[in-house]
Each structure stands twice: as structure tokens, then as C-alpha cells.
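Usage example:
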Amino acid sequence: MKVSTRFLEIIGAWMLAIIWVLPLLYALWTAFHPGEFATRFSLTAPLTLENFRNAWAAAPFARYFLNTTILVTLILVAQFIVCTPAAFAFARMEFAGRNVVFAIMLMQLMIMPDVLLVGNYRSMAKLGLVDTILAIALPYLGSAFGIFLLRQTFLTVPQQLDDAARLEGCTLLGRLWRVYVPLARPTYIAYGLVSVSYHWNNFLWPLVITNSVNTRPLTVGLSIFASTDQGIDWSIITAATLMTSAPLLVAFLLFQRQFVQSFMRAGIR
Amino acid sequence: MRQIATTRRTLLGSAAATLAAPAVVSAQGVTEIEFYFPVAVGGPITKIIDGYCADFMKENADIKVKPVYAGSYVDTLTKAVTATKAGQGPQMSLVLAVDAYSLVDDEMIVPFDTIATSDADKAWLKAFYPAFLANGTIDGHVWGIPFQRSTIVAYWNKEIFKEIGLDPEKGPSTWEETGEWTAKAIKREGDRVTRWGIEIPGDGFTYWLYQGMVAQAGGELAGDNGRKTFFNSDAAVEGLQFWVDLMNKYKSHPTGISAWGTGPRDFLEGKTAMIWHTTGNLTNIKNNAKFPFGVAMLPAHKRRGSPTGGGNFHLFKGANAAQRAACLRLLRWLTSPEKAADWSMATGYVAPRPDAWETPAMKAYVAGFPQAAVARDQLPFAVAELSTHDNQRVAQALTDELQAVLTGTKQPKAALDAAQEKATRLLRPFQKA
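Running the assembly step on the lines above writes:
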């Protein structure tokens, strides 16, 4: 009985993995072969890097990479700085109306960012920030999800550790920095992955708020290949997709190991 | 009525520009205008538009033009509407001609005939093909100036036609010919079809291609100034039956939904003998086809017919008087016969006025590439693209039902009845009391 359940689990995992990886495999195949092999499979098909060259030349991708990198770094750093004290206050400080404020903040999770398009645009226009990278980032700097996630983690930190640090003469900020933040490292990494991949892929808001090459992120640049009026060239699309998602994929694979290790270390301590 | 004056941009009397400008103009300063254009940054079309803007500014030193490339049509509309609501909108934007009703209903745009008041301006407004002006003409006003316009044509592969014993120089001219000829082109490997006779895209612009069939059956889809639809008329049902017949009777069209985006590629790779597609693809197919191909008007049934498509320039409310005048000058320049012809040759879009086709450059082009003139010759039979109030939702209602028929889950009549019912409900608020 037990063996058969395990067998089923393995089969299920493999099937999910294959379904997940299929589009990626297709992209790999198509990107490295000439256009006429896009929908044909032949082992002898010639390999080529031409698609990558064409894709790279079709738009100022170097600039877009820089913009996206600045954007996600800016957002991530600001989110950590904003969310950490907020989460700490919600987790460990007693103040009047704490639960009400927390509930209000959680309500932000229910609101789709797209609904706020016009409102956000109006704010950016008033601030004179239209067509800047800061304008893309600003609406996302305070993250309810981040605060919630960190608060839940901070709650699991044993009160004794906090007390011990206090006995040693640690200040409030010192305790936050030396006790809570190190123990919440896996959460930071997990949240960082979610945040970076979300903003790496975000499309609608950056499109609406930016007007020029100097501020547009990768996703908006990628949309050049989606001009369906002219028909779709799968080879170039897949090459461009691989090119733009590669940093994210590599980061994911790298941090996945880090992720597990952090969990273990946090557990041992 | 909301009016926003964007004075911040308009009165930038830049010293450099004034130095270069003639003395008369320098007294007034430079008018800056910005327009959104539905293509992504860096594509081949952006280079053409950038070139036009540079040339225009060279000839008109008192106007500074900034094109902003905004992706797809839908993205461009979203961007223009959002920015306009926030008071920072563009002065002009090219969006789908069929979105005019929605823009008018939301009080976003101003009609061109209110600013084009001189005799020359009025003559200019009359110079376009009526079929292209139709979508932008609402309540007697002209709200949209045709620029990036297209229509549907049938492309056929001459090599395949020769191989199956047809006259390679002649495309099918009736529904029956379309069905019978394309059925001959089918090639199989076992049970699998390796070459289809015809592909008509069923996603993205489903209603648009379908509208061609309805027109050929002698019907129309909407009327009464965008307040009524006729989705379940006899002609509408007959048109849809033709599409279904291609799949089930002639079996020359793949069952299910053929993709808009891959149609041209299938055609170029010889996986289908014919496609129906936009003229906007003409240049792409011309540059990439490794075989001789022909372009035909869509076949006739009771009559010939094809909807127009593509985008019009719309003038947004945010523009002040000076900017409106500047926009008008830019548009008159962009749609002059010479520029319209140049644009058409560079992209494959249909030059929107008859005299553009009379320019020497265009005549030479058509002589060497007669396929380019097919769209023009089809224009007398063209109908305005389906456009109603609340257009996106009405078109979506029709598209959903059409796709249900294409995938075989519904019969044409039942589906169109459902679409008509939904559209009637959506249009109820716009009926005159």
C-alpha cells in the first residue's frame, strides 16, 4: 500500500515537472535552430545563433536589461527596508489599534494593482515622475504581502531569544537587526524571489507609465515581437524569451540551494 | 466636458529651435505635440515613423513632434485613456478605428471637422476613401483620420495551384470555387494532414474575418449609428455556415481555431495553399515567400465584400488650440498623397486616398508588384468594420460565440442568436428614448 502511494507520488511529480519544462524545452529547440525547423523535429537540423543575434538587434536590449535590473533592485531594497520594521511592529509591539491597522493593511492584498492604474498615474503626474524608473517602482514599495510574510516569521522567533538579547543590553533596533532579521533569512530569500520575478515580469503598469527607451523595462521591450499584424516568428520570440528570462532562471537555480541551506541553518540554531 | 490645458509643454520657447526657425515663427515659439503609435519600440515601423517626424520638423520648425511607441492596439488604447484621465494624455493617438464610439462616449476625443475649417482642410477631409472614413464618422462628425488602414485579402500559393492542376494565375472568385479548389490541395500522410487547403484565422480578430463572409452573403453586422447589431440575420448565419462548410463539407480548412499569428508562417512554409489575412502582411509575405504567390480579393457569394481594418488618428481633448492646429498640420502632411504612398509601399497598409495611388512612385510600384493594388481595387466593395457603442464587449460577445461554432460545440444559428441577445442587452443603454 505504502509503496504504491509513493510510486504514484513519483509519477505525479514527474508529470508535473515534464508539463512545466515542456515550453522551456520547445523554446530551447526553436531558439537554436533556423526558422524552418520551428515546428519540425529533426535531429540533423543545423544549429544556429542567428536568432539570438536578430533578437538582440531588434531592440535596445542592453538598455532594457539595465533598466529592469535597476528597477527590481530598487524595489527589493526598498521593500526590505519598509517591510521589516512594519512587520516587527505588528509582531512584537503592543499599541492601540494594532489589529485594526493590520487588517486594513491586509486589505491591500485583495486589491488588484490594475484597478489603481488611473489613480497611480494621476499621482505620478502630480509628482512629475511620469516616464521615470522611480515611477514604475513607487506604487510597489510598501508591500502588504511582504509585511504579512515577515510578521508571521517574526512571530515564530522564540520570545526567550528576544529577552536574552534585551538582558545583554541590546537596543530595539539592535534586537531587530541581530535576532529577528538573521532568523528570518529564508523568508527574506523566498520573498525576494517572489518580488524579483513579479517585477521582472510586470508589464501593464511599466508600459502605461513609461514613454521612452531610457526607462522601459525588458517586458515592454519584448512586446515588440508580439506585433501580430506581421505574423509571429517563433524562432526570434523564443530566442528573445530565453535571453530575457535567463538571468531569472539562473538566479532561481542558484538561490534554490541557498534557500534550502538557510532553512537548515535557521533550524539548527 | 472636461478641458485640460497642457501649457507646461506648449510654451517651451527653446532658444535653439527659435534660432533655426523663420523670423515670423520665432515670435510664437514652438508648439510641442506628442502622439501614441501602436507599435513596439525598435521595430521596423518605428524607424519609418521617426523618419517622417524628422522630415516634418525640418519643414515645420515651429512644431516639435514626439512619437511614443506603445505596443499593441489594446496597449496603446489603455495607455492613452489612462494618461488622458490623469490629465497628461497625448495630443493624438492612433488607435483602432472601431474604438471611436467608446472614445466619443467617454468624451475623450474631439472631431476633426471642428478644427479643419478652411476650404483646403475641408477638401482634405473629403479626399479619403469613404470606406475608410466610415468607421470614424459618428453623428455627422469626423473623429478619425485614416492612416494605418488595411483590409482582408486572400493569398494563394501559385506553386501549389499549379501542382494540383489549377490555373496558377487565378484565385478563386466564389465561395464554391474556394471550397472546391482548396479541397484539392489537401495532402495527407496516413491520417495526418500535412498540407491544408485554406486557413482563416479564428482567434484575435475572429469577428473581422467573419464579417467578410457576412458581407459576401449580402448582410451587415451593425447599423443605426452603432446602436443595433444584426448578428442572427439570414446573411450572418449563411456567412458562418460557409466557414463551417470549409471544415466539414470541403474539409480543406483545419477544424477548430486557426491562429492569426501563425497563419502567414504556415503559408510561407507551404503548410496551407491559401490564407485569408490582412493586407498589413503583404510586405512580410513578399519578403519571405520562396515561391510565387498571388493576392486575390475575397471571393463573392451574393456580392464581393471585406471589412476595412486598422487604425485611425484621433485627436484627444487634452490638446490646446495651438496643439490642435499643429496636429492638423502634421496629419495633413502625413496623409498627403506622396507620404501616404510612401507609407503604403513601406508597410503594405493601404494608402487611404485615391490620389496617393496616382503618384508616379506608387504607379511604378504597382506596375512591378500588381498584388499591392488588389486591396485598393477591393475598396469599392468594402464595408466599415464592426463597430458599436461599448465596442470591445459587443465584439467579444460575437467572438465567443463564433469560436464556439468553430470548435464544434454549437450550431451557427443557435450561437448567433445568443450573440445577438447579448449584444442587444449591452446596447440597451444607448438606445434613444
